[in-house]
Design brief:
alpha/beta, DNAb Helicase, Chain A, Rossmann fold, 2 domains, nine-stranded mixed β-sheet, 9 strands
Length: about 450
Amino acid sequence: MDDLFNRQMPHSLEAEQAVLGSILIDGRCAPQVISVLKPEDFYTDLNRGIYETICSMFNFAKPIDAVTVLDEMKLWGIFNAQTSQSYLVELMSVTPTAANVMRYVEIIRDKALLRNIATVASDITAAVNEGTGSSGDVLETAEQKIYALRQGKTLGGLEPISTILGEVYQELTEISRTKGGLPGLPTGLGELDDTIMGLKNTDFLILASRPGMGKTSLALNIALNVGKKTGKAVAIFSLEMSKQQLALRLLSGEAFVDSKKLQTGLLSREDWQKLSGATAAISRTKLYIDDNSVITVSDMKAQCRRLQDLGLVVIDYLQLMTSATGENSENRLQAVSEISRMMKIMAKELNVPVLCLSQLSRASAQRQDKRPQLSDLRESGSLEQDADIVLGLYREDYFNKEAEDHNQAELIVMKNRHGNTGTIQVQWIPEYTTYTSVERVHTEG
């Protein structure tokens, strides 16, 4: 019984003291520490309180050293002045140098993670014992909590502004390294990137068109460009085409070999050489494809959580998806609304952009001006509401075979929560089933 009362969760008092001592010795290391270490990572109340004081001072741009921290603690009235002063002196005396502060931070974070794992394990066990949810519900919750731990996040609850500002500070530091470049992932279409500032984390994007416009090809172009330019993992869920068909499209566009040749097998020696180079280039990327035609959003999230360094999720396409609860008990409008909301939640939870393809209703084809509009999104107004960015794809020659601008396409930014809308000219190359920017065509020509 005594062992149970005396048992403590994993922690390192020495590392906690060393981090605090390092900041008191050299306040210049505070920004680096605060960007990765949260007050709740500290195990002891006293150390956590001192660190919260330091975080507050940092947010108000106050100088940080032993004297100023002690004064701030007196203002807060949290600690006994005499005890606090002697403890701060002790912290500095047990810290040999501030040079190893990030190593001490790693130890604290590791111990905090172990404590959080123990808490999550206890929650999962409690959920199983209560028996109030199905096995699928418990598994989804368990995976969500484990993934949140892996990403260093907390699930729900109020969070102090000081912690949020620390995260914002870290994001600003990362963005500043681009020196005015894109804050999001590059699509490969320069004008589109300029308009939407790349594919940003937590964004839910919809690419919509009538069937046969080539939206799958455009999505594959974007996915491959993200994979090649960033080295991040890209998850592609295809509910319509097989993974072999998608791979053939990727090969055709990357190798610039006519897709009809790939289908017939009538390939020249030069074609084989091009395909060999394209295969090597694509294989170096971290593209993953799932062609399960009955997959749910929960299934997608479960798979994405297991991918290291995930950068982008692509879904082709929304109308083929089934809701988690099935559609026997609800109409299709409610199902699409549920799927749409879940995909936005998935983008936030995974902290990556989610690009989902969608069909447009027949109403667009019946108008005199057949360019897509937000009202053309099929089956649910929630798509328009949930999406951060909505893109419409339009080719005049698709409807009018006599059109002058053959294979010219318009990529219409119909909604952009972060900035401007507008129309971007892109070039459709049917023999390679690929889209490219007009500027690139002119340059290469």
